[in-house]
Design brief:
The protein is α/β, with parallel strands linked by helices. It has 16 helices and 13 strands. The protein has a 6-stranded mixed beta sheet with strand order 3-2-1-4-5-13, sandwiched between helices. Helix 5 links the parallel strand 1 and strand 2. It is globular. Bound molecules: uracil.
């Protein structure tokens, strides 16, 4: 009897049943699933069932590594051999108000270490660096690999959208995960992020793994688990990584929304201390320097970071980089050249006391509703709108004092005021500030 050769669909069905029953899959099976799916030989419904089985049953380290390698092999790797500097990368799992890349990239580049950062659009309530940067008039975020290398060579840094040939299997799988409730699985997140870091082929990456209502995962334990897997994947694929576990129960810094965040990052680059932002941003920049030069101690790295801000060299790199990518470098000196919303509403404290919560997720959602993010795939966004949050957890406030500003185009001003107030929990008891960084893994 001649047996028909096993088809991709039959092979995947066996894998779905095995994973559903909690068994581990061998690397060859995982790589054929990813290969077949990327080649269009597996229907979305079957892939979705497999992703759900993985989300429910998990993956061990060998499976996660096989998935990561299969993702990487689905596309090209960036060839950095022509770049004369050591180049490092940085990634954040995303958080409301996270504009750290805009600060760390020019700081690190001004200190002689190259920064290559491919970045994405906003997802859900967390904004994306690509959307934020597009508020700079003219700035191109769609560089080819050749243009990317040229900007990196010229200015020491490059931030651009992901090229189409980089990990296409992740792009396809992510879109499916987004609509099938399978985004939050730790091995799927780790493989998705790390495959892109590995394919970017830098000398190392600093990972900012955030937990809290404004981030991808809610708890410290989940963030620690995710960070540990990512650092291990990096080690197994010759990409040294350091992970920082940071808190995003409240927004990062004060600004939420695209141009507002660019302005705030520029303030920090000009030496203004931004509560809830500057300290974390300096720590991440210092870790990037130390990844590039393992002999560098923590104190010296931190001193260099502060000096690059104080003497204006980081801001100068930012300007040169904006110009190299076709943007208007005036934004660095005249922040008012960035888009501005026509209305500004001040929200005041309804009562006196201490701030116990500033719910980052609620504020992120409100910012999306104001127009700063998307409610539908590929919808246009409004770069001018968003929020400025004037206080942080543990601050004391008095009735009638400003606690936030809403930057809006039009619409229901009273409704927006109520939504902002609902994100604040003000109580009579004093409390201690939250630490912003809880642990560094891998250094
Ligand atoms: N960011 C990614 O790139 N992938 C994920 O799975 C989650 C966040």
């Amino acid at each position: 009897v001649t047996r028909h050769p096993i088809t991709p669909a039959e092979r995947l069905l066996t894998a779905i049943e095995a994973k559903r029953a909690g068994r581990s899959l061998i690397p060859e099976v995982i790589s054929s699933i990813i290969h077949d799916y990327t080649a269009g030989r597996i229907p979305d419904y079957q892939m979705a069932a497999w992703l759900m089985a993985v989300t429910c049953q998990g993956m061990d380290m060998a499976e996660t590594l096989a998935l990561t390698r299969s993702y990487v092999d689905s596309g090209d790797r960036i060839d950095l051999s022509s770049v004369r500097r050591t180049v490092v990368d940085k990634h954040s799992t995303g958080g409301v108000g996270d504009k750290v890349t805009l600060f760390v990239a020019p700081v690190v580049a001004s200190l002689g270490v190259g920064v290559l950062k491919m970045t994405g659009r906003g997802l859900g309530y967390a904004g994306g660096t690509l959307d934020k940067l597009e508020s700079i008039p003219g700035l191109r975020m769609d560089l080819s690999e050749q243009e990317m290398l040229a900007v990196l060579e010229k200015t020491g840094m490059v931030i651009t959208g992901q090229t189409a040939r980089l990990v296409p299997a992740d792009a396809a799988t992510y879109a499916l995960r987004d609509v099938t409730g399978t985004v939050t699985s730790a091995p799927l997140i780790a493989a998705s992020i790390m495959s892109k870091k590995i394919a970017a082929a830098t000398s190392g990456a600093v990972l900012d793994v955030k937990f809290g209502s404004g981030g991808l995962v809610d708890t410290y334990e989940a963030a620690e688990h995710l960070a540990t897997i990512m650092v291990e994947l990096g080690a197994a694929c010759d990409l040294p990584c350091v992970a920082v576990l940071s808190d995003v129960h409240q927004p990062l810094g004060r600004a939420i929304g695209n141009a507002l965040e660019v302005r705030e990052a520029l303030e920090a680059l000009r030496g203004v201390e931004v509560p809830g932002f500057s300290e974390l941003a300096r720590l991440l920049a210092g870790l990037m320097l130390r990844l590039a030069d393992p002999g560098l101690d923590e104190r010296t790295a931190n001193e260099r970071v502060r000096a690059a801000v104080a003497d204006g060299s980081a801001l100068a790199v930012f300007q040169a980089w904006v110009a190299a990518q076709g943007g208007d470098p005036r934004c660095a000196e005249e922040p008012d050249s960035l888009p501005r919303a026509p209305y500004r509403e001040v929200v005041t404290a309804p009562t006196s006391g201490w701030v116990h919560a500033v719910d980052a997720r609620q504020l992120g959602r409100l910012s999306v509703r104001l127009g700063a993010g998307r409610l539908a795939h590929a919808a246009p966004i409004d770069h001018a709108v968003g929020l400025i949050v004037r206080c942080r957890i543990a601050d004391q406030v008095h009735t009638g004092e400003p606690i936030a500003e809403i930057h809006m185009r039009d619409g229901d001003r009273a409704g927006a005021q109520d939504a902002v107030r609902a994100a604040f929990d003000i109580r009579p008891q004093r409390l201690d500030p939250l630490p912003s960084v809880h642990r560094v893994i891998g250094m």
